[in-house]
TrEMBL record:
Biased composition (Basic residues): 335-356
GO cellular component: cytoplasm; sperm flagellum
Gene behind this protein: IQCG
UniProt-annotated location(s): Cytoplasm, Cytoskeleton, Flagellum axoneme
One example of a Gene Ontology biological process annotation: sperm axoneme assembly
Coiled coil: 126-178
Family of the protein in this entry: Belongs to the DRC9 family.
Region Disordered: start-end pairs: 1-20, 332-356
InterPro entries (UniProt xref): IQ_motif_EF-hand-BS, IQCG
The entry's keywords: Cell projection, Cilium, Coiled coil, Cytoplasm, Cytoskeleton, Flagellum
UniProt-recorded name of the protein: Dynein regulatory complex protein 9
PROSITE patterns: IQ (PS50096)
């Protein structure tokens, strides 16, 4: 029993050898074989008694432990649960039998590890499927909520459209009634206009008849006037034809006279042109003489002005020179010399210098 307990891990499962080895020693292989054989016998017994009185098998964990732990007096276990228990039992029995053969044959339990790994993969796949199913349920719930909201929105929109349809029907009825009233009013107005137009047409017809009679009398008058005017115009045309012949003859006569007069004027113009050219030549000669005379007079004027200027300058120079001679006592304005010069003379001379 101590070896059996040592070979079991937590939860009653067989513990793997240390270091992750799959080969057992002969002693361990014998212990494991005994344990597996005992488990196999218990599973066979469970298979025989499970349909009538399912009981918990020590050391074996199945999915029906919760049902086996139910208190007496509760409802019987459902058939689906019993079938699942039987399937798990058969799977465990097959795995243990195969492991027992492998342990007895070679001291290994690789088939057990493979079965556990395969079962773990199935469990993971089952959990993933459950998670996907849960996600799908959430998605379905969200879609159902969206469908409900959309349905609610469409119902509200349908109700609004029905209200609009009702309103439009009322407006249509009102429009029909209004159009019927307007139609009756239009027919009455048309009848009134037709009667008014008929009366107006009668008045216009009478007025046109009177106008036709008036125009007939005016047409007769116009015809008489036209005949008178035609006679007058024919007579006037004959007079104008005679006047045209007269004026044509007068035109020819006047044209000859004017042509002769034009020839005379051309001859006179030629003689006048020659005389004008002669006068122009004489004018040019006289103009040259006049210009020459003007130049001579201008030169004479400038010469006289120059002589007058020189004379004034000469007079000024002579006056200045006389003043200099008088002030300095030069020439004929020189003072007579004295034999003796006294003090008085010196003083007088000094006084004279001061006056200067």
């Amino acid at each position: 029993m101590d070896g059996e307990a040592a070979s079991r891990g937590p939860g009653g499962r067989v513990a793997a050898p240390p270091g992750g080895q799959t080969h057992l020693s002969p002693v361990d292989a014998l212990c494991v074989s005994l344990i597996l054989e005992d488990c196999l016998h218990q599973l066979e017994i469970l298979g025989c008694i499970a349909p009538c009185a399912p009981a918990k098998i020590p050391g074996i964990r199945t999915s029906t432990d919760q049902e086996f732990r139910d208190a007496p007096g509760q409802d019987p276990i459902p058939s689906d649960t019993l079938r699942k228990v039987q399937a798990d039992r058969r799977f465990a029995e097959a795995v243990i039998a195969e492991t027992l053969q492998e342990v007895r044959a070679g001291g290994t339990f690789q088939s057990l590890l493979s079965a556990v790994a395969s079962e773990k993969e199935k469990r993971d796949a089952h959990d993933a499927a459950i998670a996907r199913e849960e996600e799908a349920r959430k998605r379905v719930a969200a879609l159902q909520k969206e469908i409900y909201d959309l349905k609610k929105e469409k119902e509200n929109e349908l109700q609004r459209l029905e209200e609009e349809i009702t309103t439009l029907k009322d407006e249509l009825q009102e429009a029909k009634a209004r159009s019927a009233m307007e139609g009756r009013y239009a027919r009455r107005m048309a009848q009134a206009r037709l009667s008014q137009a008929a009366r107006r047409r009668e008045h216009v017809e009478l007025a046109l008849r009177d106008e036709v009679q008036t125009l007939g009398s005016e047409l007769d008058n116009e015809n008489r006037v036209h005949m008178d005017i035609d006679t007058f115009l024919r007579r006037h045309y004959a007079d104008l034809s005679e006047q045209l012949e007269f004026w044509m003859e007068k035109y020819d006569h006047d044209l000859e006279a004017k042509q002769q007069e034009l020839n005379n004027l051309k001859a006179t113009h030629a003689s006048d042109l020659a005389h004008l050219q002669d006068l122009a030549r004489q004018y040019s000669e006289f103009e040259a003489v006049v210009i020459e005379d003007r130049l001579e007079r201008e030169a004479e004027r400038k010469r006289l002005e120059q002589e007058e200027l020189e004379l004034r300058c000469t007079v000024k120079i002579q006056a200045w020179w006389r003043g200099v001679m008088v002030r300095r006592g030069l020439g004929q304005y020189k003072a007579p010399k004295k034999a003796k010069k006294g003090k008085k003379g010196k003083k007088a001379k000094k006084g004279g210098k001061k006056k200067k």
